[in-house]
Amino acid sequence: MRDKKTYAIIGAAIEVHKELGCGVFKATGLRVGLLINFEAKSLEYKRLIYTNKSV
Question: H helices within the chain, ranges in order?
Answer without folding.
Answer: 4-28
